[in-house]
Design goal:
Number of strands: 10
Number of helices: 5
CATH superfamily: Alpha/Beta hydrolase fold, catalytic domain
Distance between the termini: 34 Å
Strand order of the largest sheet: 1-2-4-3-5-6-9-10
CATH class: Alpha Beta
Structural class: alpha/beta
CATH topology: Rossmann fold
CATH architecture: 3-Layer(aba) Sandwich
Largest sheet: 8 strands, mixed
Low-confidence stretches: 1-5
Helix content: 25-40%
Number of domains: 1
Strand content: 25-35%
């Protein structure tokens, strides 16, 4: 194993009990802090899903200290699924822990699918507290009614925000996301030919996320 590939698991106290967190740490002092949130637990999503894992390790390799929490009821995390409300509280606890380790470093919030919805809420709460994240990346963000008869109203009007969506996403229709984004004048980065899981387009997703982290 190469020296820069450092991954470990820890437990944090959260509002609903223990939160299992996978931590991807660079060997050298980190350049920033990040929380990467995983897709819908009700559909098998976890912190080891290929997309959060890919993004977390890519950021770690660029020098970021990255935390990937398992949402409530996933892995060793306690509690039960709460539709994004309790999960927001849990990510806030992870952010507080990360910031306590390196309070001087910038924070990035990265989320995919359900995790993107949760991160929009976390980003809004931090901004309202005057503690805004410097970078927010939401990929496959659910908006309106999505597959499975679930409905989402993500937070908008966030600074440092990049939204990435697949042109051919059938789980979260691009049109529904644009209907949400239009009144907010929120730009959306569309990856041509990509589905919800960015099949065959993961290098593009990785590149877009890393490029955004060098902005602002």
């Amino acid at each position: 194993m190469k020296a820069h590939l450092k991954t470990g698991t820890m437990r944090l106290d959260g509002p609903a009990g223990s939160i299992e967190v996978i931590v991807d740490a660079p060997v050298h002092p980190p350049r920033g802090l990040a929380v990467v949130a995983h897709p819908q637990p009700l559909l098998g999503g976890s912190a080891t899903h290929k997309i959060p894992q890919l993004l977390a390790r890519a950021m770690r390799d660029e020098g970021w200290l990255v935390a990937r929490p398992n949402f409530r009821g996933v892995g060793a995390s306690q509690g039960t699924h709460d539709g994004g409300i309790g999960e927001t509280d849990d990510v806030m606890a992870v952010v507080a822990w990360l910031r306590s380790t390196h309070p001087e470093l910038p924070l990035a919030l990265i989320g995919f699918s359900f995790g993107a919805f949760v991160q929009s809420r976390v980003a809004r709460r931090l901004a309202d507290l005057g503690e805004a994240a410097r970078h927010v990346v939401l990929a496959g963000l659910p908006a309106g009614e999505v597959e499975g008869q679930r409905r989402y109203e993500p937070e908008g009007g966030l600074s440092g925000l990049l939204i990435i969506h697949g042109e051919n996403d059938t789980r979260v229709a691009l049109g529904a996301l644009l209907d949400w984004a239009r009144p907010l004048s929120q730009p959306v980065m569309v990856v041509p030919g990509a589905d919800h899981f960015f099949t065959g387009r993961l290098p593009v997703l990785r590149s877009l996320v890393l490029s955004h982290l060098t902005c602002i």
